[in-house]
């Protein structure tokens, strides 16, 4: 027994010293990126082929947790890169002074709404959308107005802007369309809201269990069901006012000791080798050119005619006030 | 009754346990307070906090009242019917809701009570067009009763089953009517433990998070725990999170303080250890009533569990069970649950020994008695410290010493052990106390001590309560997502975390399968916790 323990110990010591010969790139991201079915494993394999390095993903719960983690760790963070923030978090992330300008040509990147930044680079995006169950709902709403003013007996599950990014997304979507009239619109929509869940998973769980015919999710959600489950049952509703967008970003940490390698990864991220992986693993739209064709079901997804996006600085400034407004409208008499 | 050395050892153990608990909580809080964050300048006592506070107290009060009021008839019926078919299994089943991740149980409840649920389906068939909606306060109460009625019931039945057999012989001899039995035997026994149970349930409901949001129907239903989570996870405002946590603990401490003022007769039972047999309630109407009550309660608990079973069976279970991800998560979960269970039981035993040692001293000083009370309060209030506060605080503390994810398993074990402590105490304190009162004089006069006492005197009687407490703690830890979610990384995945990951990437069927497996494991655990019952005097003390 002792021999086995000793040999395990020695092997691990030797292995780790062998690894330390190679450069190691540490990337903080959210856990669904690193899951076995997520983009992580494929991205790691593809990049390691080109770099003579080891990629080490550290996955936390979600984009918000990612930023909190970086704030907690400050300059002592192990992270070279943070991958998985979104535009709504960008201003707050920059205010930490932990990030450094990437200094790269972001030419390959094209995202609707034309977001570009000297600190963060988009790697994918998705439009928020109301996803509905075709077996329970024959005529889905065709606009946000129809959603707000529709039959209160036909319910929707949404997420809480206090605890989830899609929830914040809907808040900003309503704000972009209704402006100052948003509280009144929320009061109207309130009758249709079955419940407000803390995160995306709970709401989507209610939806797939058949409890509610509509849920706030992404235009790309139906692609998962079509590609992986071969069913057309769940579809997204196209809204005439346009769809609010979530753009996922990656950024370089100031404290990184492998900045060249990190920049190499960011360049790789903008290349088809990375982008090919995204749609069918992260279920988001690629932010740059792919070398492969998207699977057929992606052609049948809702393609928003208009993209809604707010200035990240404005979001950061007003988020609390808008959430308070939402609270009052959703819980007042 | 204890020797001086035993006294010192008891109190020493208590101090150790207290030091561990208070340091673990205190250091985390200090670390967060010391964090240099830009404060939000939101005033703490704004209208929002006030509303949240009111709602938290209101729903927790109602949930507690309902859970207990409904649990009493069920517990009485179960205690009256030692030979009820499947009684042991009903009691085992009652341990299940606690071991399930909250979200899983919530989805199970919705399958029965939801808009498209079984109940509304039945009502629709009966010609009622308007579906019954559980979203809102009603849903929150329903879910809290689902979780806490079984808990209260198990603790009450355990107490009633421990009543000495002489009581029932006497009651029959005196020809006592059911009302007199309730007044003179059952109620005094329950009254002793009710404040404790009510306190426990109140704390569980006051800190409810996912259930309140999912079933609450809107932000009008928000508890302090939600506000704490929001301020730490979303706004990253540690001082505010701490302030809210302090508010939560203070308020609940006041409620618990009020509860402890309730008159409770702390009687010592002259238990002879003879086999208990009940002679009352033999009329047909009583049998019918008891059968109906037990049947309804069982159905109430069983139906949502069945829906979890039905959904789980549709998953590709063999593939799921054989996948390396599952095997790894299962072994991690087992290790975490077992360690936190053992730690929790050890802390509880240390605290109980100290309280016995202090209570045994003829002239225990004011300080000693105060320490005894503080110990009891600490062991229950610890449930109120949000895991998110503990986790973030310790993350910050350990950060300078290396990779926190490596230490995460130990932190999760510690957090889970503390969360289980109030439950473990509820199970162990009466059992150890009674055992001590029965045997202390004799062992002292015979001069039995050390290992011999442990093996010959304590083990036969205390093994079962310890196993029960362990299974309670392990089930709690198995279903816990809160602590793990804070540190969750690729190398550290437990079963509920795996389940949540599947759920958050569209893989609902896998999640259903995992929920079923978690349920089976919990049932197996309670089976171990209640094994050996049926061999001696507590034949039907299926706690």
Summarize the structure.
The complex is a heterodimer of chains A (about 325) and B (about 550). Chain A is an alpha/beta fold and about 325 residues long.
Structure characterization notes:
- The complex is a heterodimer of chains A (333) and B (543).
- Chain A has 333 residues and is an alpha/beta fold.
- Chain A contains 14 helices and 12 strands.
- Chain A has helices at residues 2-19, 31-34, 40-51, 63-73, 87-95, 144-149, 165-178, 182-190, 200-208, 221-228, 259-269, 272-275, 278-282, 312-331; strands at 23-30, 53-60, 81-86, 99-100, 120-133, 156-159, 193-197, 214-218, 234-237, 243-253, 285-286, 307-308.
- In chain A, strands 1, 2, 3, 4, 5, 6, 7, 8, 9, 10, 11 and 12 form a 12-stranded mixed β-sheet that branches.
- In chain A, helix 5 (87-95) packs across helix 14 (312-331) and helix 8 packs across helix 14.
- The longest helix of chain A has 20 residues, at 312-331.
- The model of chain A is unreliable at 1-20 (pLDDT under 50).
- With 543 residues, chain B is mainly α.
- Chain B has a domain at 60-312: MetI-like (MetI-like fold, Orthogonal Bundle), CATH 1.10.3720.10.
- Chain B is 76% helix and 0% strand.
- Chain B has 22 helices and no strands.
- Chain B has helices spanning 4-33, 47-80, 87-93, 96-99, 102-113, 118-125, 137-161, 165-173, 178-206, 210-216, 224-234, 238-261, 284-313, 317-322, 324-360, 366-381, 387-398, 404-446, 450-479, 482-487, 495-503, 508-529.
- Chain B is globular.
- The two termini of chain B are 30 Å apart.
- Chains A and B meet through helix 2, strand 2, helix 4, strand 7 and helix 9 of A and helix 5, helix 10, helix 11, helix 17 and helix 21 of B.
């Amino acid at each position: 027994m002792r021999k086995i323990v000793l040999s395990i110990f020695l092997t691990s010591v030797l292995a780790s010293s062998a690894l330390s010969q190679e450069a190691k790139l540490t990337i903080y991201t959210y856990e669904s990126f690193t899951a076995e079915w997520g983009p992580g494993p494929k991205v790691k394999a593809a990049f390691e082929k080109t770099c003579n390095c080891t990629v080490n993903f550290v996955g936390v719960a979600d984009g918000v947790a990612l930023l909190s983690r970086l704030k907690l760790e400050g300059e002592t963070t192990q992270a070279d890169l943070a991958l998985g923030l979104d535009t709504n978090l960008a201003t707050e992330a920059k205010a930490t002074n932990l990030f450094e300008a990437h200094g790269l040509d972001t030419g390959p990147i094209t995202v609707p709404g034309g977001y570009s930044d000297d600190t963060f680079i988009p790697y994918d995006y998705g439009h928020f959308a109301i996803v509905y169950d075709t077996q329970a709902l024959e005529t889905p709403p065709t606009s946000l107005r129809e959603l707000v003013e529709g039959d209160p007996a036909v319910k929707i599950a949404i997420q809480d802007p206090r605890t989830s990014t899609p929830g914040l997304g809907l808040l900003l979507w309503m704000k972009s369309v209704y402006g100052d009239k948003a509280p009144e619109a929320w009061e109207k929509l309130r009758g249709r809201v079955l419940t407000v869940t803390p995160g995306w998973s709970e709401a989507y769980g209610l939806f797939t269990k058949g409890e509610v015919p509509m849920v706030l999710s992404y235009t790309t959600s139906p692609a998962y069901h079509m590609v992986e489950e071969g069913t057309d049952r769940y579809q997204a509703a196209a809204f005439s006012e346009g769809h609010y967008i979530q753009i996922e970003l990656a950024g370089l940490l100031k404290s990184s000791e492998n900045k060249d390698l990190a920049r190499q990864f960011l360049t790789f991220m903008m290349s088809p080798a990375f982008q090919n992986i995204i749609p069918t693993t992260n279920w988001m739209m690629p932010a740059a050119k792919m070398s492969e064709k998207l699977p057929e079901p992606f052609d049948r997804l809702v393609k928003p005619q208009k993209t809604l996006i707010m200035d990240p600085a404005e979001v950061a400034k007003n988020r609390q006030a808008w959430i308070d407004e939402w609270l009052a409208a959703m819980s007042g008499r | 009754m204890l020797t001086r050395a035993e006294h010192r050892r008891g109190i020493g153990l208590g101090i150790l346990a207290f030091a561990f608990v208070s340091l673990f909580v205190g250091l985390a809080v200090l670390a967060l307070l010391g964090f240099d964050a830009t404060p939000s300048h939101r005033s703490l006592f704004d209208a929002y906090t006030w509303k949240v506070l009111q709602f938290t107290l209101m729903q927790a009060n109602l949930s507690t009242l309902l859970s207990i009021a409904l649990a009493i008839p069920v517990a009485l019926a179960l205690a009256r019917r030692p030979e009820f078919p499947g009684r042991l299994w009903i009691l085992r089943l009652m341990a299940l809701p606690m071991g399930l991740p909250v979200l899983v149980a919530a989805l199970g409840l919705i399958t029965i009570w939801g808009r498209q649920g079984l109940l509304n389906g039945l009502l629709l068939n009966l010609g009622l067009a308007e579906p019954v909606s559980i979203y809102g306060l009603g849903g929150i109460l329903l879910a809290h009763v689902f979780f806490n009625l079984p808990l209260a019931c198990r603790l009450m039945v355990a107490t009633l089953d421990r009543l000495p057999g002489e009581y029932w012989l006497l009651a029959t001899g005196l020809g006592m009517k059911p009302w007199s039995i309730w007044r003179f035997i059952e109620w005094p026994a329950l009254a002793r433990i009710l404040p404790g149970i009510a306190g426990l349930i109140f704390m569980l409901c006051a800190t409810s998070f996912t259930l309140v949001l999912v079933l609450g129907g809107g932000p009008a239903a928000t508890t302090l725990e939600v506000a704490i989570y929001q301020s730490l996870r979303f706004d990253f405002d540690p001082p505010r999170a701490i302030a809210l946590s302090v508010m939560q603990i203070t308020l609940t401490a006041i409620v618990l303080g009020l509860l402890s003022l309730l008159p409770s007769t702390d009687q010592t039972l002259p238990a002879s250890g003879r086999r208990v047999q009940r002679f009352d309630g033999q009329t047909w109407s009583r049998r019918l009533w008891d059968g109906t009550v037990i049947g309804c309660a069982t159905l109430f608990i069983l139906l949502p569990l069945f829906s979890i079973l039905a959904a789980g069976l549709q998953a590709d279970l063999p593939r799921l069970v054989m996948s390396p991800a599952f095997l790894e998560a299962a072994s991690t979960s087992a290790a975490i649950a077992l360690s936190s269970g053992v730690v929790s039981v050890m802390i509880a035993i240390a605290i109980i020994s100290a309280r016995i040692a202090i209570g045994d001293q003829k002239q225990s000083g004011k300080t000693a008695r105060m320490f005894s009370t503080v110990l009891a309060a600490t062991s229950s209030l610890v449930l109120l410290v949000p895991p998110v506060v503990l986790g973030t605080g310790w993350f910050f503390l350990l950060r300078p010493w290396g990779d926190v994810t490596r230490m995460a398993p130990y932190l999760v074990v510690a957090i889970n052990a503390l969360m289980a402590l109030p439950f473990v105490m509820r199970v162990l304190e009466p059992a150890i106390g009674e055992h001590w009162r029965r045997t202390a004089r004799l062992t002292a006069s015979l001069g039995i001590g050390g290992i011999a006492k442990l093996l010959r005197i304590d083990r036969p009687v205390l093994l079962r309560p310890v196993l029960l407490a362990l299974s309670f703690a392990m089930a709690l830890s198995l279903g816990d997502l809160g602590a793990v979610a804070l540190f969750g990384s690729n190398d550290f995945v437990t079963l509920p975390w795996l389940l949540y990951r599947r759920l958050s990437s569209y893989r609902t069927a896998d999640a259903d399968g995992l929920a079923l497996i978690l349920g089976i494991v919990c049932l197996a655990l309670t089976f171990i916790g209640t094994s050996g019952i049926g061999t001696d005097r507590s034949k039907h003390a299926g706690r």
